[in-house]
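Let us begin with a simple case.
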Amino acid sequence: GQEKLSCNPKKENGSHVVLCELGNPMKAGAQITVDMELSVSGLEDMGDAITFQLQLWSKNSPSPANSSVTVPVEVQAVMELRGNSLPATTVLPTSWHKVEGSRRLEDHGIKVEHVYQLHNKGPSTVSEVILHLAIPSHLGGRFLLYLLELGTEGGMTCTNLPGLNVEQV
């Protein structure tokens, strides 16, 4: 049957040790399987794996058995994308046409600003995040949204789209 282990963390010679009592007394020849879930913080610079030293011993055994286990490091972070448009609602007139050759913004349509915020909800830190944002710019061979500029804040960089401000407005 499945039982919960009673484990006690402690520090020993500068190392963190977790001592778990598996059974007392245990019958001769008994075989057990133990699944452990460990939560370790501060692994940002540890590479792809960390090593745990496991030591199994019995009070009846004269020599303890030692082994090392290398565990792949799996970083988890929950990312949340929030966005809004300013103004929130835009109604375009059905008979509106842009003024050809004009460099004035108002001659090309109503200004709509889309703002997106990417938040890391943790528990781990992240780096090198790539966000692909697809914006429909044409509908039926005509401009739906004229993409004027793309900007960032907070130390991020963006790759500009090939269709960004094609008419140099």
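The second case is a distinct protein. As before, the sequence precedes its structure tokens.
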Amino acid sequence: QEEFRELLELLVRRARTYVPSLAALEEFHLSLSQCVVLRYHWIDPFVRSLRERLASFHRFFCVADQVKVYTNQNKTRTFIGLEVSAGHFQLLELVSEVDRVLQEFDLPTFYKDPSFHISLAWCVGDLSGRLEGQCLRELQDIVDGFEDSALLLRVQWEQIRCKSGNKYFSFPLR
């Protein structure tokens, strides 16, 4: 949405006063698993199993309105994201089913206490110290003061997607 892009631009512009190398993301998602490597012959059975496990889930809303700073496990990248403040329980239920499929294939499951979020911008290195504190407060103020942010940051989950290589698989929620 155009309004979301406006909000993103305001946030990135402010954050760049603290970390000039910050780059806005073009596509947005919320992860329900770690990135894993699927062997080619596992793709179809993996997707089939996911489809079966996710078939009973209904559409739901979540709200992602809390600005937070993240780093990847290796501390080689830093991200600014919007953490989910409502809808956490439904996301945990989805992760539980995705984890069961991952276990079927002996793959690593999701993080123990996940912080569900949508990444907005990133930079190379661990620059979390520059973005936390004053910068984070300023970014949260922008979100809180943005016109229609309550509606804008409310997301209806209608489908779950799985990406494997350059293929996308979609699992509609009921």
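The CA atoms of residues 84 and 121 lie 16 Å apart. The mean pLDDT is 96.
Keep these points in mind for the review questions at the end of the chapter.
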